[in-house]
Amino acid sequence: MTTYVLIPGACHGGWYYDPITTELRDLGHEVHAPTLSRDGNLEEHTEQVLELVADLDEVVLAGHSYGGMVITTVADRAPEKVKALVYVDAVVPAHDQSVWDLVNGPLREWYITGAAADGRTVAPLPVFDPRAFAHPLASLLQRARLTGAVDKITDRWYLYAKNMPNSPFTRFRDRFRDDPTWRVRDLDATHNFIDGGAAEFLDVLKAAGGAA
């Protein structure tokens, strides 16, 4: 049995992973897919997940989009808890980098216009799932504070959604695909990778857990 913790992207909750969590649990695995605080910053989201993994071991930690910030900082604080890291069309920060630093113009424009109503939270895009909710702007601006301990984790995967136009995540795919410490795959999917890329994501999770 493998323990999985799946972190969603901005504006999404743990429900985003429902098709995956169901399949993994049916196979006998332990799966956690938390919904991050709707008013927290990166540090608070990190603490939320650290509390979750405190009683877990050998965790396969996966993150989508903004979730890459969270899994990186969690793994840096508690590398002894993490068996593997799986990034799915996600940002991968270095020390002192924020989401804002790592994304391109279209996403930055969304953050600004999406936060115009209250100045604190970014409204979900119209194409998002009806369950989507406003995401705290502070978490997108706060920089990751890393010690380098995350590099102790050598089982690292990057899944790139190749059908996203003008993707800000191409830089990560290109950086990691020739790095022997990373395993990189292209998903035949848009950034909403569950639609089209769920099966391959599931395969990678099982491989990262040692089941394939």
UniProtKB/TrEMBL annotation:
Signal peptide: none annotated. Gene3D superfamilies: alpha/beta hydrolase (3.40.50.1820). Residues 5-184 form the AB hydrolase-1 domain. InterPro entries: AB_hydrolase_1, AB_hydrolase_fold, MES/HNL. GO terms for molecular function: methyl indole-3-acetate esterase activity; methyl jasmonate esterase activity. It holds the Pfam family Abhydrolase_6. This is Pimeloyl-ACP methyl ester carboxylesterase. The lineage of its organism: Bacteria, Bacillati, Actinomycetota, Actinomycetes, Pseudonocardiales.
